[in-house]
Structures are given as C-alpha cells and as structure tokens.
Design brief:
Length: about 325
Amino acid sequence: MNWNWIPLRDLLRITSMPITVSEHNVYKQATLLPYPHGVVLKGVKRGFDFPHKQQRLIHSGQFLISKMHANRKIWGIVPPELDGAVVAKGYLSFDIRPALNHEYFAAYLSTKLFGQASFAACTMYGRLIVQQFAGISMPLPSTEDQFRIAEVWRHTHSALEHTAEMFSSISDIRSGVIQDWFQKKNSSWEHCTLRDYAEIGPNLSSDFGLTVLAPDKIILGKSDPDVQGIGIVPTDEVDNRFLYYFLESQKQTLLEAVSGTRYDLKTILQNLPIPLPTLYEQRKFVGLMETHDEALLALRKEQTALHKLVQGMLDGIFSGTLNLQDVLQTL
C-alpha cells in the first residue's frame, strides 16, 4: 500500500513526569507485561509500601516501553482505568501525537515489523537505545485507513480476549473442583499417608507412576531419564491419575513444607496425608477432571490458531501483502 513512512520521533513525544510518593497517600501501581497484555495493574498500595519513593506518573493513552527489556516486547498503551497510576523509573513514557490513531498504533505494536525494529534498537543486553528507537519508521496511512485498521484490531483483539477469558473461567472452575473434592470430610474414605499406598524414591520410574521434579512441578508417567526427580509408583488401590490431581491440589502445601522445614522432598511426600476414596470414586473424579482438561486443551488450540490468524492478518496488512478491504469483509 502506498503509505507514508514516518519516524517515531515525529509521532511520539517523550514525557517525564517524576513523582515522589507520599507515605500516607494511596497509589495505583502499574507494570508492563509482554505485548499485547501491555500496561496492567500491579496493585494498590500506600506510599510507605513503596521501597523506591521515586516513581513516574502515567496517563491514559500514553505509550510505555521498558528501558531494560524492550527486546522482550515489554511495551503497551496506558488504558483509561490506569490514568494517574505510577510506574517504576525503568519505563519510558510517550505522548502520542494527534496524527496517530491510538488503536491503529496498538495494532502496529503487535506486528513483527515493530518487534523486529525494536529488537534492533536494543543493545545485546536488551537495553533500549532511545535515539535509535526514535528513528524507527512506521507506516502512517490516511486517517480513514488508520480508522479501518483500528477496526480490524478491535474485532480481532476482542476475539482473543474472549477466548482467554473462557480459558481462565474454566481453569478457575477446574481448580475449584479439585480444592472442593480434597477438602471434603468423608468418613468412609481412608485417611492415610502417601507412603502407605505408594513406593517413593529418587528416579523411581514407571509408566503408571508420577515424577515430582519440584513441589510445583509434577509429571504424570515417566520423566526424562536425564532429569532428577522423586518417583511415585502407587499400589493397585490408587489410580495414578487421581494421585496426580491430588498432588496438584497440594502444590502450595508442598512448597511451604520444603521452605519451612528441614526435611527433604522425598520425606515430605512420604508423610503427606491423603484422603483416599474407593477406586470407583477415584476414577469417577478423574473422569470429571479429564472433561475439564479436554475443554482447556481444545481452547488452548483455539487460542493458538486464532493468535496465528490475527498475527497473520495484521502482518499482512502492514507489509502490504493483504488488501485491507478484503480483511474487513472477512470480519
């Protein structure tokens, strides 16, 4: 497409709004996640909770980028709900000039074109070279075309967010089911320790067992032979998949035990209390959990496919290999 190419220095104006947080005031603290997550709320806290009192004030619609980790896509546009928040001094903030549609710019920020240019404007250690970054040229179409590309971004970004929300919702339901199940007080269940119904030891391997690589990292089945871990091989009275879900529910307990006691992970696992229902009940629970896992796997595949589609569309628009009108007609 026959668009003008304009250096960022002509479209962004660097701002510096340092602020010393007052001990008794309450502040919204923002941080940056890899794009397209961008600028998000880190927390709300009082001034005396900030270890570093020198912060930067940010406003809705500003562009933020990390000075130290720009090579990792640590950038974003400040959303309205974070207007007046503060960020650490390690971020640069820019006002976006009126000629640049904010949502058009948001779409451009997600492209390989911008990612590659930003990577090239960093040192080998990831530090942003500001002058080089300001010299990056980006396409600036007409106001009408910017609006139309912004429309593409709104539709596609909304679809990605909706899928992510569905995934998060099912994950929360799954976690709730696991926690509720293992918090039951059922008098008919066997109450024992894991060592009563499983062989536990370093590098113990079995197709029907589990491997605990760390308190929060559990693998169903064999692990890589080169990886050191604690193997767990349950007896015939315990379904290995039921045991996997039980250990998943105990991750926080295991983490706290490892950091708070002098015992090693093997000993902690051996003495871990486990409520044990009948084998029939175990497998009934496993079936319920596998239904959730299948739904999450299907959504993850959908997310991946949708992300590739969106990325391909935006990259095609900005590279000129896709006609904007054709893309709009598919939405």
